[in-house]
Design brief:
A 5-stranded mixed β-sheet has the order 9-4-1-11-10. A 4-stranded antiparallel β-sheet has the order 13-14-12-15, with helices on one face. 36% of the residues lie in helices and 32% in strands. The chain has helices at 14-24, 28-36, 68-76, 82-103, 118-132, 163-171, 188-197, 238-247, 266-278, 309-320, 372-382, 386-401, and strands at 2-7, 41-49, 52-60, 138-141, 144-145, 150-153, 156-159, 176-177, 200-201, 208-217, 227-235, 250-261, 283-290, 296-304, 326-335, 337-347, 350-361, 364-370. The chain has 12 helices and 18 strands.
């Protein structure tokens, strides 16, 4: 399914929405015609925001509208038609409703103190025209960042989000969060357009295969990239997305910890392996070695993430008495795709569940390994040999992962 995704991590305004949709591929002439048909001019340029190149859309006007009826009349006489006109009228109604609730008057009598300049109406017209020229079955959005601090208005300083924007967020159940800058990052016009254009706000976005990315620049330079990012792409079905993650080889970076010991018993080394794995090590190996003066010893080697380095090094030194641990930073690992599945296996007329780890390379199964603890539990319950239980669970794992790869 083709979707359009808004990522308002730096907020949203009407001009930012026009700009990001233009950068995404919206038809410039349709947008320009919509803006001009409500009595404004559109200037489009390419600017840089924190080293990100983005489109800047600037609507120019010296006129104002004063009522919902006047705004509706202007929109109905514009070049907008069909769904784009319907969206624009809905956005205007949302703004009027918000102003009505904030000021305690009927929406027909609401005065648009902060958003009454004609360029706000042009932002609505241009954004709705831009959305109409893009092919997407659904529009999604991540949580909206609204900024923080205070905004200067005709009524004095008001807390961010401004009252009209907050009312739109509340009325349309739009999820939002403060920050990341002490600025007004979500305008009432931006909130109204998101309420109209977005079909669903999601805290966790599904897997998307992106086709195009757009960036719409805000007016100000901030400490963060002041851009509204949008993405058009295909949403991958859950199973396909998981398959891509599981089956495609990938890599990560780890650290390798290593030390040599020559006076540590096998029992201590066995206990050390358990301690390290419980503490977050990804793998632990003990290698036999010949030390100086011909003494038998061991090389202890652990693989872990960077964050676990100090903790694991301390465990090694405390448990073995080693005076130092070598750390090899940023070791790259090439990893096969891995997944864990649960299989049901019958033993002695009873059905048991067991976990199996399946590894793939380029979609081909290269390994199926039963979980030891599950096999041990089944062997204890059935009094069967562990090797027999493991073999049957492994066969079931092959069959569950891919029947065509069944080894039998």
């Amino acid at each position: 399914m083709k979707v359009l995704l808004f990522d308002p991590s730096a907020g949203a305004s009407g001009d930012m929405i026009i700009a990001t949709l233009l950068d995404l591929g919206a038809d410039l002439e349709s947008v320009r015609e919509a803006v001009e048909s409500v009595g404004c001019r559109l200037e489009v340029s390419r600017v840089e925001r924190s080293h990100i190149m983005a489109i800047r859309a600037r609507v120019i006007s010296d006129r104002r509208f004063h009522s919902l009826a006047e705004a509706v009349s202007i929109l109905q006489a514009s070049s907008l038609t069909g769904k784009a006109l319907k969206n624009a009228l809905f956005a205007m109604d949302i703004l009027a409703e918000a102003e009505s609730r904030v000021h305690g008057v009927p929406k027909e009598q609401a005065h648009f103190h902060e958003i009454g300049a004609l360029d706000a109406l042009a932002d609505i017209a241009g954004a709705c025209a831009a959305r109409g020229s893009l092919t997407a079955e659904r529009v999604l959005s991540r949580t909206v960042s609204v900024g923080s601090g205070f905004v200067k208005t005709g009524h004095g300083l008001l807390a961010v989000p401004a009252p009209a924007a907050l009312e739109i967020l509340r009325a349309h159940k739009i999820p939002w969060k403060s920050g990341p800058a002490e600025e007004e990052m979500l305008t009432p016009t931006g909130a109204a357009l998101l309420a109209v254009l977005v079909d669903e706000f999601l805290p966790d976005i599904p897997a998307i295969q992106a086709e195009r990315v757009g960036y719409g620049a805000g007016k100000r330079d901030l400490a963060l990239p002041n851009v509204l990012r949008t993405i058009i792409g295909d949403v991958l079905p859950a199973q396909e997305a998981q398959a891509k993650m599981d089956h495609v080889p990938h890599g990560d970076r780890v650290v390798q910890l290593e030390t040599n010991v020559d006076d540590v018993t096998g029992e201590v080394l066995g206990y050390l392996i358990e301690r390290l794995m419980q503490a977050g090590a990804l793998d632990v190996t003990i290698l036999p070695a010949i030390m100086k003066k011909g003494r038998a010893g061991s090389v202890i080697r652990a693989i872990a993430s960077q964050e676990e380095t100090e903790k694991l090094a301390r465990i090694i030194m405390r448990e073995t008495g080693s005076l130092g641990v070598r750390v090899f930073p940023s070791v790259h690992r090439f990893l096969a795709g891995r997944e864990a599945i649960t299989v049901d296996v019958e033993f002695a007329s009873q059905t048991f569940s067991a976990c199996v780890k399946v590894s793939r390379l380029d979609g081909e199964i290269i390994s199926v390994k039963p979980e030891y603890e599950d096999c041990k539990r089944i062997a204890d319950d059935t009094k069967l040999p562990l090797r027999a239980v493991s073999k049957k669970v492994e066969d079931a794992g092959w069959w569950a992962a891919d029947p065509s790869c069944h080894p039998l």
